[in-house]
Amino acid sequence: MTEKTARIADQLMKAYPDAHCELNFHTPLEIVIATCLSAQTTDKQVNKVTEVLFHDCRTLDDYLALTPEQIRDYIHTLGFYNNKADNLYKMVRQLADRFHGEVPQTMEELTSLAGVGRKTANVVLSNAFGIPAIAVDTHVFRVSNRIGLAHAKTVEETEQQLMEVLDKEIWSRMHHVLIFHGRYCCHARKPECESCPIREDCAYYCTES
Hints:
The protein is an all-alpha fold. The protein is built from twelve helices and no strands. Helices cover about 60% and strands about 0% of the residues.
Protein backbone atom coordinates (compact mmCIF):
# COMPACT_ATOMS: atom_id res chain seq x y z
CA MET A 1 0.00 0.00 0.00
CA THR A 2 1.07 3.57 -0.49
CA GLU A 3 1.76 5.65 2.59
CA LYS A 4 -1.50 7.58 2.13
CA THR A 5 -3.59 4.45 1.63
CA ALA A 6 -2.02 2.82 4.67
CA ARG A 7 -2.77 5.93 6.71
CA ILE A 8 -6.42 5.95 5.60
CA ALA A 9 -6.82 2.25 6.34
CA ASP A 10 -5.18 2.58 9.74
CA GLN A 11 -7.31 5.56 10.79
CA LEU A 12 -10.55 3.94 9.67
CA MET A 13 -9.75 0.65 11.41
CA LYS A 14 -8.99 2.59 14.61
CA ALA A 15 -12.25 4.53 14.25
CA TYR A 16 -14.32 1.36 13.83
CA PRO A 17 -12.56 -1.37 15.83
CA ASP A 18 -15.76 -3.39 16.15
CA ALA A 19 -16.83 -3.21 12.49
CA HIS A 20 -18.42 -6.51 11.57
CA CYS A 21 -21.13 -8.17 9.52
CA GLU A 22 -24.45 -7.01 10.99
CA LEU A 23 -26.45 -9.84 9.46
CA ASN A 24 -27.19 -12.53 12.03
CA PHE A 25 -26.07 -16.03 11.07
CA HIS A 26 -24.45 -19.18 12.45
CA THR A 27 -23.70 -21.30 9.38
CA PRO A 28 -22.54 -20.81 5.78
CA LEU A 29 -26.07 -21.66 4.62
CA GLU A 30 -27.54 -18.95 6.83
CA ILE A 31 -25.12 -16.26 5.68
CA VAL A 32 -25.71 -16.96 1.99
CA ILE A 33 -29.47 -16.83 2.55
CA ALA A 34 -29.31 -13.69 4.70
CA THR A 35 -27.07 -11.88 2.22
CA CYS A 36 -29.32 -12.74 -0.71
CA LEU A 37 -32.30 -11.42 1.26
CA SER A 38 -30.45 -8.19 2.11
CA ALA A 39 -30.50 -6.75 -1.42
CA GLN A 40 -32.37 -3.41 -1.40
CA THR A 41 -33.21 -4.03 2.27
CA THR A 42 -31.61 -3.07 5.58
CA ASP A 43 -29.73 -5.62 7.64
CA LYS A 44 -32.04 -4.81 10.55
CA GLN A 45 -35.11 -5.79 8.56
CA VAL A 46 -33.44 -8.95 7.28
CA ASN A 47 -32.54 -9.96 10.82
CA LYS A 48 -36.20 -9.68 11.86
CA VAL A 49 -37.17 -12.04 9.06
CA THR A 50 -34.35 -14.52 9.56
CA GLU A 51 -34.95 -14.71 13.29
CA VAL A 52 -38.12 -16.63 12.47
CA LEU A 53 -36.87 -18.32 9.30
CA PHE A 54 -33.67 -19.64 10.88
CA HIS A 55 -35.58 -20.84 13.92
CA ASP A 56 -37.95 -22.90 11.79
CA CYS A 57 -35.39 -24.05 9.21
CA ARG A 58 -32.26 -25.54 10.74
CA THR A 59 -31.07 -27.72 7.86
CA LEU A 60 -31.06 -27.71 4.09
CA ASP A 61 -33.79 -30.36 4.15
CA ASP A 62 -36.00 -27.92 6.04
CA TYR A 63 -35.67 -25.42 3.20
CA LEU A 64 -36.20 -28.09 0.58
CA ALA A 65 -39.54 -28.89 2.20
CA LEU A 66 -40.80 -25.33 1.70
CA THR A 67 -42.89 -24.30 -1.28
CA PRO A 68 -42.26 -20.93 -2.96
CA GLU A 69 -45.47 -19.67 -1.36
CA GLN A 70 -44.28 -20.68 2.11
CA ILE A 71 -40.96 -18.91 1.54
CA ARG A 72 -42.86 -15.78 0.49
CA ASP A 73 -44.85 -15.93 3.71
CA TYR A 74 -41.60 -15.83 5.69
CA ILE A 75 -40.01 -12.95 3.76
CA HIS A 76 -42.97 -10.89 2.52
CA THR A 77 -41.88 -7.81 4.50
CA LEU A 78 -38.66 -7.52 2.46
CA GLY A 79 -38.21 -5.63 -0.75
CA PHE A 80 -38.46 -7.73 -3.93
CA TYR A 81 -39.65 -10.68 -1.83
CA ASN A 82 -41.19 -12.48 -4.80
CA ASN A 83 -37.89 -12.67 -6.70
CA LYS A 84 -36.00 -13.49 -3.51
CA ALA A 85 -38.40 -16.32 -2.70
CA ASP A 86 -38.04 -17.77 -6.19
CA ASN A 87 -34.24 -17.56 -6.00
CA LEU A 88 -34.12 -19.14 -2.54
CA TYR A 89 -36.34 -21.98 -3.71
CA LYS A 90 -33.98 -22.61 -6.65
CA MET A 91 -30.78 -22.08 -4.69
CA VAL A 92 -31.40 -24.72 -2.03
CA ARG A 93 -32.10 -27.24 -4.77
CA GLN A 94 -28.91 -26.33 -6.54
CA LEU A 95 -27.01 -26.85 -3.30
CA ALA A 96 -28.60 -30.27 -2.87
CA ASP A 97 -28.20 -31.38 -6.49
CA ARG A 98 -24.79 -29.96 -7.38
CA PHE A 99 -22.88 -29.40 -4.13
CA HIS A 100 -23.92 -32.31 -1.91
CA GLY A 101 -25.83 -29.95 0.34
CA GLU A 102 -22.78 -27.80 1.17
CA VAL A 103 -22.22 -24.12 0.43
CA PRO A 104 -19.32 -23.93 -2.05
CA GLN A 105 -16.15 -21.98 -1.30
CA THR A 106 -15.21 -20.48 -4.67
CA MET A 107 -16.42 -17.36 -6.45
CA GLU A 108 -17.28 -19.30 -9.62
CA GLU A 109 -19.36 -21.88 -7.79
CA LEU A 110 -21.12 -19.39 -5.53
CA THR A 111 -22.12 -17.10 -8.38
CA SER A 112 -23.60 -20.08 -10.22
CA LEU A 113 -26.30 -20.21 -7.54
CA ALA A 114 -29.64 -18.47 -8.09
CA GLY A 115 -29.63 -14.96 -6.67
CA VAL A 116 -25.92 -14.91 -5.83
CA GLY A 117 -23.81 -12.17 -7.40
CA ARG A 118 -20.22 -11.15 -6.69
CA LYS A 119 -21.14 -9.04 -3.68
CA THR A 120 -23.02 -11.87 -1.99
CA ALA A 121 -20.30 -14.36 -2.90
CA ASN A 122 -17.63 -12.13 -1.37
CA VAL A 123 -19.65 -11.73 1.82
CA VAL A 124 -19.96 -15.51 2.09
CA LEU A 125 -16.30 -16.18 1.30
CA SER A 126 -15.16 -13.66 3.87
CA ASN A 127 -17.59 -14.23 6.72
CA ALA A 128 -18.27 -17.95 6.41
CA PHE A 129 -14.88 -19.23 5.32
CA GLY A 130 -12.35 -16.56 6.30
CA ILE A 131 -11.22 -16.08 2.70
CA PRO A 132 -9.97 -12.52 2.01
CA ALA A 133 -12.57 -10.66 -0.05
CA ILE A 134 -14.04 -7.20 -0.58
CA ALA A 135 -17.80 -7.08 -1.07
CA VAL A 136 -18.78 -3.81 -2.72
CA ASP A 137 -22.22 -2.69 -1.62
CA THR A 138 -23.62 0.83 -1.96
CA HIS A 139 -21.67 2.09 1.07
CA VAL A 140 -18.34 0.63 -0.04
CA PHE A 141 -18.87 1.90 -3.59
CA ARG A 142 -19.74 5.42 -2.46
CA VAL A 143 -17.15 5.80 0.28
CA SER A 144 -14.16 4.27 -1.50
CA ASN A 145 -14.71 6.41 -4.59
CA ARG A 146 -15.50 9.54 -2.59
CA ILE A 147 -12.39 9.40 -0.42
CA GLY A 148 -10.13 8.38 -3.30
CA LEU A 149 -9.28 4.75 -2.64
CA ALA A 150 -10.95 3.97 -5.96
CA HIS A 151 -11.83 5.92 -9.08
CA ALA A 152 -14.41 3.69 -10.69
CA LYS A 153 -17.85 3.89 -12.29
CA THR A 154 -19.02 0.38 -11.45
CA VAL A 155 -18.98 -1.91 -8.42
CA GLU A 156 -16.89 -4.43 -10.33
CA GLU A 157 -14.22 -1.84 -11.13
CA THR A 158 -14.32 -0.62 -7.54
CA GLU A 159 -13.77 -4.14 -6.20
CA GLN A 160 -10.81 -4.64 -8.53
CA GLN A 161 -9.23 -1.30 -7.66
CA LEU A 162 -9.63 -1.85 -3.91
CA MET A 163 -7.95 -5.25 -4.22
CA GLU A 164 -5.07 -3.57 -6.01
CA VAL A 165 -4.50 -0.73 -3.52
CA LEU A 166 -5.18 -2.57 -0.24
CA ASP A 167 -3.06 -5.34 1.26
CA LYS A 168 -4.85 -8.67 0.92
CA GLU A 169 -4.75 -9.42 4.63
CA ILE A 170 -7.01 -6.44 5.39
CA TRP A 171 -9.52 -6.84 2.53
CA SER A 172 -12.24 -8.37 4.70
CA ARG A 173 -11.66 -5.98 7.57
CA MET A 174 -11.74 -2.93 5.29
CA HIS A 175 -14.99 -4.13 3.73
CA HIS A 176 -16.70 -3.87 7.13
CA VAL A 177 -14.88 -0.66 8.07
CA LEU A 178 -15.94 1.10 4.86
CA ILE A 179 -19.55 0.04 5.44
CA PHE A 180 -19.50 1.39 8.99
CA HIS A 181 -17.91 4.65 7.80
CA GLY A 182 -20.63 5.01 5.17
CA ARG A 183 -23.41 4.29 7.66
CA TYR A 184 -22.22 6.42 10.53
CA CYS A 185 -20.15 9.27 9.07
CA CYS A 186 -19.74 9.45 5.29
CA HIS A 187 -23.47 9.64 4.49
CA ALA A 188 -24.66 9.80 0.91
CA ARG A 189 -26.33 13.20 1.04
CA LYS A 190 -24.53 15.00 3.83
CA PRO A 191 -21.22 13.50 4.95
CA GLU A 192 -20.06 14.56 8.41
CA CYS A 193 -16.69 15.76 7.21
CA GLU A 194 -15.79 17.78 10.29
CA SER A 195 -15.92 14.68 12.49
CA CYS A 196 -14.28 12.39 9.92
CA PRO A 197 -10.99 10.83 11.05
CA ILE A 198 -9.55 10.79 7.52
CA ARG A 199 -10.69 14.17 6.21
CA GLU A 200 -7.16 15.44 5.63
CA ASP A 201 -6.53 12.50 3.28
CA CYS A 202 -10.00 12.48 1.72
CA ALA A 203 -10.20 13.53 -1.92
CA TYR A 204 -13.76 14.84 -1.47
CA TYR A 205 -12.95 16.93 1.62
CA CYS A 206 -9.81 18.38 0.07
CA THR A 207 -11.78 19.36 -3.03
CA GLU A 208 -14.80 20.80 -1.21
CA SER A 209 -12.96 22.63 1.58
